[in-house]
Design brief:
With 229 residues, this protein is α/β, with parallel strands linked by helices. The protein contains six helices and seven strands, in the order H-H-E-H-H-E-E-E-H-E-H-E-E.
Length: 229
C-alpha cells in the first residue's frame, strides 16, 4: 500500500508450510472488498495473493509484528497474530482498532517509547520512493525492530542500492502484485524465505532479474513528492 498527502506523510524465515490458500487469502479478500483506495493518500492495495503471501511471512515469524503503512496486511493477519501486532498509519479510519498507532513519516522518531525495539518483524510499504522519504522510514524501522528481527520492504527495483545501504535488505525473486499501480515494485528482506524465493505468477513468468536494465530516467521515478521531479 502507498498513501500520504504531502508534505505530511501517509496515512495507508525460512518458510514453514503455508496456511491453506483459501484461509490465507480470506483476510485479504475481506479487506479489499470493504476498503477503497484513497487517491488523496496515494493508497494502492496489494492483490489478494500478495497480501496472503506477506501475511504468511509475518505469521511464520511467530512473534510480534509492526506493519508500517501496510494496513492491508495487518487487517488480513490471523486473529492471534494480529493481537500481537501493530499497524502504524496516517489514515485515521482505523483508529478504533486496538492495534492502530497514528504515524506520520515526517516525524519518524515520534513512535511511542513502549514500541521501541519491540517487534520481531517489521513490514514497510511507504507511499513514496524517494531517498528522503525512505530515510525517514528507515529511522522508524530501526526504532521498532528488535535485535535480530526480520524486515520486509517494498519499493522499486532501482532503489536496491539505497535499500541495502539504509536497512541492509536485498531484493527477493517474488515481486508484489499491486493491480492499480502502473509501475512494478520489488520486495526487499534481510532474511531468507522459500516463499519469496519463488516467482509470483501474477507478475512474472520468468526471472525478472535477468532482463536488460533500462536506463534510469524520469519515467522510472514514479510517486515523487511535489517538487522532487
Amino acid at each position: 500500500l502507498k498513501g500520504a498527502p504531502a508534505p505530511s506523510a501517509r496515512d495507508p524465515a525460512g518458510a514453514r508450510s503455508p496456511r491453506p490458500a483459501s484461509a490465507a487469502m480470506a483476510g485479504g479478500r475481506g479487506f479489499l472488498d470493504s476498503t477503497s483506495e484513497r487517491s488523496d493518500l496515494n493508497q494502492y492495495w496489494f492483490s489478494e495473493a500478495t497480501i496472503a503471501a506477506f501475511a504468511d511471512e509475518v505469521a511464520d515469524c511467530g512473534g510480534s509484528a509492526a506493519l508500517v503503512s501496510s494496513p492491508s496486511v495487518y487487517f488480513s493477519l490471523p486473529e492471534a497474530v494480529r493481537q500481537r501486532s501493530k499497524v502504524l498509519d496516517y489514515d485515521r479510519q482505523w483508529e478504533g482498532d486496538p492495534g492502530f498507532v497514528f504515524y506520520d513519516f515526517n516525524a519518524p522518531a515520534d513512535v511511542p517509547a513502549g514500541l521501541h525495539n519491540a517487534f520481531d518483524f517489521v513490514l514497510v510499504d511507504p507511499p513514496f520512493i524517494t531517498s528522503e522519504v525512505w530515510a525517514k522510514y528507515a529511522t522508524t524501522t530501526r526504532l521498532l525492530l528488535r535485535e535480530g528481527g526480520r524486515v520486509l520492504c517494498t519499493t522499486i527495483a532501482e532503489n536496491a542500492p539505497m535499500m541495502r545501504e539504509m536497512l541492509g535488505v536485498g531484493p527477493a525473486l517474488f515481486r508484489p502484485s499491486i493491480p492499480n499501480l502502473v509501475y512494478q515494485y520489488s520486495v526487499y528482506t534481510n532474511y531468507a524465505s522459500d516463499r519469496l524465493a519463488q516467482l509470483n505468477p501474477e507478475v512474472d513468468s520468468e526471472d525478472w532479474r535477468l532482463r536488460p536494465k533500462e536506463p534510469a530516467g524520469e519515467a522510472s521515478l514514479p510517486n515523487l513528492l511535489p517538487g522532487e521531479a
